[in-house]
Amino acid sequence: MALIAIMTAYTIITQENYTEAFDFIKVGLGITIQTTFWAFLLALLFGLLAGLARISNNVVLKNLATLYVELVRGIPMLVLIFFIALVGVPTLVDGMNALGSWFQSVGLDSLATPFLLIQNKDVSMNLRAIIALSVTYGAFLAEVFRAGIQSIGKGQMEAARSQGMSYSQAMRFVILPQAIRNVLPALGNDFVSMLKDSSLVSVLAVRDITQVARLYAGHSFRYREAYITLAVMYLTMTVALSLLVKLIERRIRKDEH
Fold it and tell me: How far is 21 from 48, CA to CA, in rounded Å?
C-alpha cells in the first residue's frame, strides 16, 4: 500500500493530467470529512440510545429499538439515503409545520413561529446526507453498544446497586465506561467504514470528492485520471485511520496488561 501511495503521488506530481485532476477533486475533501465527522457523532448518539433500549426491561422501548435496527439492517444503504433525504426529511418538516399550526390555533404564537418558518427547501442536501448516514449507522452502532454492555459481567451492576446507586447511575458511572472502552476498536472500524460509505451521498448531489470527481470526469472525459486519483485519496484516508485504530487497540491491550 505504501508503494502504491508513493507511485501514485509521484504520478500526480509529475504528470499534468493527474495534477489537474487532483487539484480539482481535492475541493470536495472538506465536505467529505465534515459529512463523515458530524454523521458519526450523531450515529454514536442514536446507537447508544438504541443499544440501551435494546437491553431495557421496558417492552415498548425494546421493541421500538429492535424494529429500528432490523429495518435499517434489512434495507440497502443507498435506498435508505434516498428515502431519508427525499421522503423522511420532508415528512418531518411537514410534521413540524403542522405542530406549529396547532400551537398557533391554541394561541401559542411564540412557540408556533419557529415551527412555521421551517421550509423543506431550507434543509440542505448536505444536512440530509448527514442525517441519512447517521440514522443508517446508528442501527449498526446500536448492536456494537449492546454487545459491549452485555460483555460486562452482571456482578458489576449488582455491586454498583449494592452501593446505593440507581440503575441509571450504575449504568452511567460503572457499566458504560467499561463497555465503551471495550468497543472502541469496533467504533473506529465503523468510522472508517462510514468514511468509505460517505461516497454514496454523491447521489444527492453533495459536492464531496466522489461527486466532484464525477463532474471532472464528465466534462474532461479523463476517467482514468479522475477515478484513480479518487480511489487513492480514499485509500490514503482509510489506511491512515485504520492504522490509528490499530494504535488505539494496541494501547488499550497494553493498559489491560
Answer: 40
CA distance 208 to 205: 8
- Which of 7-11, 196-200, 206-210 shows the lowest per-residue confidence on average (mean pLDDT)? 7-11
Among candidate residues 12, 64, 51, the one with its CA nearest the CA of residue 179: 51
pTM score over 0.85 = yes
The confidence score (pLDDT) of residue 255 equals 65
Q: Three cell numbers at 233?
A: 485519496
Q: Which three cell numbers stand for residue 241?
A: 485511520
Dist CA 83 CA 75 (whole Å): 10
Cell of residue 218, nine digits: 464528465
C-alpha to C-alpha distance for 44 and 213, rounded to whole angstroms: 29
* pLDDT tens per residue, range 213-240: 999 999 888 898 899 889 888 988 888 8
**8 Å CB contact between 195 and 174:** no
What is the sign of the dihedral through the CA atoms of 3, 4, 7 and 8? negative
Contact 81, 129 (CB under 8 A): yes
Cα separation, 58 vs 145, in Å, equals 18
Q: In terms of Cα–Cα distance, which of 23, 33, 81 is closest to 202?
A: 81
What type of residue is 224? R
